[in-house]
Design a protein that fits this description.
Arc Repressor Mutant, subunit A; 434 Repressor (Amino-terminal Domain); 5-stranded mixed sheet
């Protein structure tokens, strides 16, 4: 006769394997024989007074052992489970592009944003923003800030935890920092960056092509690239290669799609500054101090002035 495996047996075996213990180790903890544990995993039940000890050992309720409730997991694990299910469903599609996955992330981010309002106990969908309107949600707190741009064409969410030593102490004024803004502020600077952002992972573009598209000189393009292509000897968002022509070589550039993507964040932030929101929804202002500590800034400015002399 075939043995019958009940829910308790299935759950007990799964919990034991998940915890990485043997039947002998579980038996030793419970004060029973390994044969008893083996019998439980094959269809029998333990004495009732052992159930609290088993539930405590595996950190689950007795109801869970009997299949009457789901195993409790952390909120982080629950979020991951939801996102994994969405991604798994998308992968089944012939031409999936993770759109539903990113939409779900934005939904979850909206839950983070509105939960900061203490009297709000229920989730509600992001407000629909009419075409041409610009609406954002902002949380400013002594611990950091959250910024949610709700415009459908430029949606982004930013959550920043303020460092223990403050923002100013961790953002450095340097020649490299200045060069990024100098390059993007020069005639043709933004246009050059746009050209790089059009490249796929297997494409390159020559300096002369950029010059023709942007309408500036080759030397000016090279100067711009040198200024905003910040990196180190191991990694840079833009890499130079040689294109072999019939009688000569020409410099061309390829991009690291992951590395250059940070410029998208910079551009979206600049777009928001240039075109500020018409209104706010769910704005919270609990911060009672400036974003940069005055002592930090005074120290930084003094250091810069001394090194200019």
């Amino acid at each position: 006769m075939a043995k019958t495996i009940n829910v308790f047996s299935t759950n007990l075996q799964a919990l034991r394997k998940k915890k990485g213990v043997t039947q002998e180790q579980l038996a030793s903890y419970l004060g029973v024989s390994p044969q008893a544990v083996s019998k439980w995993e094959n269809g029998s039940y333990p004495e009732g007074d052992l159930l609290p000890k088993i539930s405590e050992y595996f950190e689950v309720s007795i109801s869970y052992l009997y299949g009457q409730e789901k195993e409790k997991v952390s909120i982080e694990q629950e979020v991951q489970n939801v996102l994994r299910d969405v991604l798994d469903d998308e992968i089944k599609e012939e031409n999936f592009n993770c759109s539903a996955y990113f939409d779900k992330i934005l939904d979850i981010a909206w839950a983070f944003q509105i939960s900061a309002y203490k009297s709000n106990k229920y989730y509600y969908k992001r407000p629909e923003v009419a075409e041409g309107e610009r609406t954002v949600s902002v949380i400013s707190d002594n611990a950091g800030y959250g910024y949610y741009n709700l415009n459908p064409d430029t949606q982004f969410y930013s959550i920043v935890r303020e460092p223990e030593k403050g923002f100013a102490a961790n953002i450095h004024i340097s020649d490299k920092m200045r060069n990024i803004f100098k390059a993007l502020g020069e005639p043709g600077g933004l246009e050059t960056l746009f050209c790089f952002l059009t490249l796929n992972c297997n494409e390159c573009i020559t300096v002369s092509s950029i010059a023709d598209k942007v309408g500036i000189g080759v030397e000016q393009v090279q100067s711009i690239i040198k200024k905003f292509n910040i990196g180190n000897d191991i990694y840079k968002p833009i890499s130079c290669i040689d294109v072999i022509k019939k009688d000569e070589k020409e410099k061309a550039y390829i991009t690291d799609l992951s590395g250059i993507s940070i410029y998208i964040v910079l551009l979206l932030a600049a777009e928001t500054i240039v075109n500020p929101p018409h209104g706010y929804t769910m704005q919270i202002g609990n911060r009672n101090k400036p974003w940069f500590d005055k002592k930090d800034v005074d120290g930084i400015l003094k250091f810069i002035q001394e090194n200019r002399k």
